[in-house]
Amino acid sequence: MIENTYFGWGQLPHTTTCTSPAWDVDVRHDLGTRPLTAAELTHHCPDEHCAHTGAFDRVTVRVICRSCGTAHVITGEALARTVTTTQALGYGQAPRQIAGLYLWPGRPVLHGYGPGRSGLDDQPYEYLVTTTLVDRLTPGDCVGAIGRHRTAGGHPRWWAGAIPTPPPLRVLPEPGEYRLAWAHRTSDHTSPDEAATWIHGALYADQQPLVVAV
Ligand SMILES: [Zn+2]
Ligand SMILES: [Zn+2]
After folding, report:
1. Which ipTM was obtained for this model?
2. 98 and 76 housed in the same domain
3. Hey, which of 16, 90, 114, 171 would disulfide with 106, CB 3.0 to 4.6 Å?
């Protein structure tokens, strides 16, 4: 679901009167203790860092604004902190510019599935597509999408969707869930670039001047 790469994520709010919105972000690790059901139960496992003992890592993220004084404290038992890259997330990269469009990458399709064509699992990307460069992508900005699929014969191909249309309401969406749907689709492109060119054509087909024979 490439939609989840971009949508359903909220920015931490400042006050409406904040004159200089900027966050200071700090992370703290504490060793928490979990009360054991029986006081005589002690930990005999040779792994002192294992998760079944009475201790756990507690992570707290403290986010403050020195201008408006707003503070957000995010905490939870076993809340994981993952250090990764925008290349692995897709999100946070600059969009690719192709065929007069901006292509916003999602998570690499093969992430976690071993070597792709690059020799790594870092490729390829699927994309959401806009006609303009925006600071923060919204569903309304998207004019198309490009995704990978396999044909019945097992050949990798790229599908493309163009021109937003309301998605069929088969299931009520969960909070934070976004589904984009497209009025026009094709499925037989051999590369994302080819799919982008098709989207460009689909978007501007209606705007080509009519040639009238006289
Ligand atoms: Zn602020
Ligand atoms: Zn143990």
Report:
1. 0.61
2. no
3. 90
